[in-house]
Amino acid sequence: xxxxxxxxxxxxxxxxxxxxxxxxxxxxxxxxxxxxxxxxxxxxxxxxxxxxxxxxxxxxxxxxxxxxxxxxxxxxxxxxxxxxxxxxxxxxxxxxxxxxxxxxxxxxxxxxxxxxxxxxxxxxxxxxxxxxxxxxxxxxxxxxxxxxxxxxxxxxxxxxxxxxxxxxxxxxxxxxxxxxxxxxxxxxxxxxxxxxxxxxxxxxxxxxxxxxxxxxxxxxxxxxxxxxxxxxxxxxxxxxxxxxxxxxxxxxxxxxxxxxxxxxxxxxxxxxxxxxxxxxxxxxxxxxxxxxxxxxxxxxxxxxxxxxxxxxxxxxxxx
Length: 319
Hints:
This protein is an alpha/beta fold. The chain is built from ten helices and 13 strands.
């Protein structure tokens, strides 16, 4: 059995901050940001929490699927910015959507989180442990960035996306995932709750990133893992209908397409509207494509995520 997506949903806060708004905070401008990242605006949470956004995305996925929330057996929520340490955000979603029979837990792999959670759901379904799994990616990145740091604050936004999987007969799902903790310092975010943080500079709790190191890592490792999954599947690159990559930077996505010698038209992007929402980027894009009718049953999709850890993962499946 494999997990077929039977419903998708997403949510972004109504407040929008465009590049001109950012130019009032740091030394930048719209043209500079667009040229280097492809980002035009981002949605920023005000009263919304990470678990609230996740629940809204989940409700929309459940509604589209037509499945009773009580049928959901497991909720996997990928996030690195929950408003609470515990209860976990997945349990908050369970409460909000009425999934009274579901187990739930959070998974933290930063921007790779949704793809790893999706792979985990597929493994549970393949093993016959669960039949109906809700997978969510949600992050409030605006709470983690230093709004005086031009190198990071221009990149991120807030949002959530969800996919509801149901066990069905179908083509096998192929997956791969890797981590490199030695290179972890390239992208860090220290906990505000760790012992002694209050005595340190508050700047320590913000995201810190070596942009060049992360860029080089992504454009090398993403093509490698895509080729690894294709080899496992015995599938040619040309057979893939769509590559749904983590929406970090248009230059990264363009570089991956170039290295794979593949038409950039197979790499949809929506970061102009949402920026980098971390674990939410892949499900946000999936929901957007699904609701616009751009996904058809039988199409072969490759998901790929990459981010802090350093971590990277990919998954090939039929829509």
